[in-house]
TrEMBL record:
Name of the protein: Metal ABC transporter ATPase
Entry-linked Pfam families: ABC_tran (PF00005), NIL (PF09383)
Span of domain ABC transporter: 1-242
A GO CC annotation given for this chain: plasma membrane
Keyword 4Fe-4S: no
PROSITE patterns reported in the protein's UniProt record: ABC_TRANSPORTER_1 (PS00211), ABC_TRANSPORTER_2 (PS50893)
Amino acid sequence: MRLTALRKVYPGTGATPEVVALDGIDLAVERGRIHGIVGRSGAGKSTLIRCLTVLERPTSGAVVIDGEELSALPEGRLREARRRIGMVFQHVNLLDSRTVAQNVAYPLEVAGVPRAQRAARVQELLDLVGLGNRAGAYPAQLSGGQRQRVGIARALATEPAVLLCDEPTSALDSATTRQILGLIRDLRDRLGITVLIITHEMAVVREICDSVTLLDHGRVAEQGAVADVVAAYGSRLARELIPVPDLPLGEERQLVEVAYSTDDVATADVLAAVAALGTGVEVAAGTIETLAGRRVGRLQLDVPAADVAAALDRLHAVGLHAVVSSDGGAGTGSAVRATGAGVAR
């Protein structure tokens, strides 16, 4: 799947200026990978979905799915090409008057698949998502997680090349979220399908994604493999993927944030460097996580304001990334691009 210089502009009317919802989005996701799209409200995530499925035509740029440029197709061919994209929705949008099997069969009916062939495909899909014994149930008889499994089975009915998931777990509890994300990962492994997850939940990216893009006001702010992104210590994505709390300390003390990877330095050496700063410095908060095979730690140090400059110098001297938290370390690191050619530190 590839997006090239994707741009969407909504024209202004009268005194209302035009709105640039997407401004030159470049994105390439290899077959069989899981990519997350994150960003705050208004970042352009919803517009990206509509343009990716060509429910809205991009103002310019290209949307290429399974080797074909959808954005250049006439409407007749586009309807067929959209079957290469399976959609999983936040609220599932099942038809209440239809059984589970009938809901899964619906896209096959639209595609004109013969009845006997539909029935076999539906049973195969329900078995795949763990609902083989619920074919005759109605949506009202299912839990939230079961309804989402039906939605995933329906999205896979036409054997798409890309599974597009729009906030697939935001309406679910934490235990069910882990189950659904595990199912999506298993389906990727079994089917080799490409998965694009639109989410505002960084926990989803942490749990399942191979790579991630941060959108900000319609532009790509940061992008890269998760393993590279978490090692770009000063970046917004790194801080949100491996968060530690900001604690109010007053004017006489400040927080110094230290970030490191055990690929570069052992945790014991980091703690030794912190201890060498003296008894006036304390660890206020910290976390160590393993994401995409990389073990990364972040510490918040409680430092007397008069000693901050010296503490930063000593931490930098031993090769550690360290910033004053109130200085907004987020955004000080360079964006990591999908090529993975290097890591900004």
